[in-house]
Amino acid sequence: MRRLLFSLALLATALLAGCDVRQRFAPAEDRINAALPLTVDVRQAHERFVEQLSKTSTERATLDQAWAARLRARAVSCSPDFTPSWRHSTADIEAAVKNKSCFAEFDRKLARWLAVQRIGQLLAQPPLPVAEIPPSLTMQGEGGALNRDAGQAPVIAVTTTDGLELIALGGGRSLFKERGQRGDVTVAPNGRLFAQSTSGALRIRASEGGETLLELPDARWLYWLSPRFLGVRSTSGKPAHLLSLRSGEDVPVQVAGQSSFERLLPVPGNDNRFNIATFQGLYQLELDEQDGKPKVTVVAEKPGVDRRMGVVLMESGPIVFAGAELLLGGDKLVRMDLNTLDMRESSFEPARVSNPVPTGKPDQYIVSLTMQGSAGGVGAGNGNYLFDAAQGTLARLQGAAWQRPMRYFPAIKRVAQVSVPTIWLSEQLEAAPAQPVDEVVTAMLEEANQRVLQQAATEERRITQSPALQVGSPLLDHVRDAQVEGVGIYEGREKFNAPGQSRAIGRVTVTVRRSLRPLVLVLTSYEAVQWHVRLEPGARLAAVLLGGYYESTVLGAGEARVLRIGRTYAYQQEGQEFQALQREVSRWAGRPVSLFQTGYHGTSFTVGGS
Predict the structure, then answer these.
(1) What is the pLDDT of residues 183-222, one digit of tens each?
(2) Which pTM was predicted?
(3) Which residues form the signal peptide (predicted)?
């Protein structure tokens, strides 16, 4: 009887003190979480996610179930040795739980999990609706440039001197604008998210309003691979990894010969798979999360295609998708099937392909062709052509589209001409009558050869009219009648990391054509380059003079002598660097360079033939 009276007295005391009896008898996990509440940012993130979800009961019920499970895990994992009874007040529980730092760390993970769930839910939504398509869009501010992603979304990101702006292609509506902040930007395929890398970190943000959903501190590039996972490239040179949009975990990606030079690509129509391109080859991988532990497995591979991977791996230009194909430029137009990893090549050699663009029609592409060997100027045949892969024809684009940079936006089915600050959106392209590829390339080659001959004659006249050249060259007996040609670049477009080297090395190919006179080849660059010399039958390479600020190497020169001429370099035919190079070449070869091909980036060049 005394015990009963004592219990009633305690209960009455609690009631008089305003204590909530129902809270005293709530589940232990709920009481622990109430005593050590969630941080404000986690509670707000949860509220925003609830608002973001559609009104369907299934989505809300799924979130509530997952959320409740994580809250229970928070209490159990951070307070494993204490279970409160009905006698413990909130203050008692707070005092009894010792590992406060565990709750702070768990809340940090909860915030990341909520952010990842919001990102996944936005990625799973249909693309932003497309309103009426205007004939053109004009950027505001100076120095405007489009984002470098694949342009799959109905949204473009524009960076100017003023800052960043996201513009809907349909109607030209501004979705978000921010002054000052710029950096590299990629837009999600449905246009509802964008990723922005600045100051060594990457932020995933909502396109409408610009809210930052997640910040990745050690990341510099994001690949929109699937509504289930994203690809992340780090700033520290580590291999790329996946971010699971189910668990919020980082999932490592491992393939043979993997390095920091790699690019992740989607597999259209398969949300469980993705591709990875490295200098060693192509790989298709699958992510399995059925057992709760993410696992990546290689399901297909095609090693040994490194010569074509340089264009994919370098992020100097936009990556171009044409449906389930990836388009690559370079020595040839390469179309890579993202489902099978098969490659189809179309050659325009010796013309090079840059900026391949789909048109929305099967087997039709826009290619920008440049004839190699047109030193010192741009040939009249260099420009944009409509290429029909099925017919094997080229048709020269007409009007301003002949020289303007081109883009294709599949979300609005429009080809665009880009001339900052304006973008023209075309329903159809005007082109000259189509001709067979070999006829167009032959005409371009003839024009380039004529330009080379004219320049050689001009240079020969200049040399004969100049004062006597310095004599005493160590190569004079071997190159007395030689033609001296040179290639000067700042760096190679395709790069790789050599063992033991902290600085990336460029890879450039120089083809030496057949000639009547011996050739002295001058190779010079600012960055280190591995020069690959390819000798055609009948080529007469007498010597290679190698210069550069950073030390380069030469492969494939045959019996020709390779001599280093110091740190002299030049990548344009003007200025003190070029004059210094000419003096140094004259000292070694007895005469200066007569034909000098230049460029900031370099991939391949052709010399000789005269």
Answers:
(1) 788 899 999 999 998 877 899 999 998 999 999 988 888 9
(2) 0.71
(3) 1-17
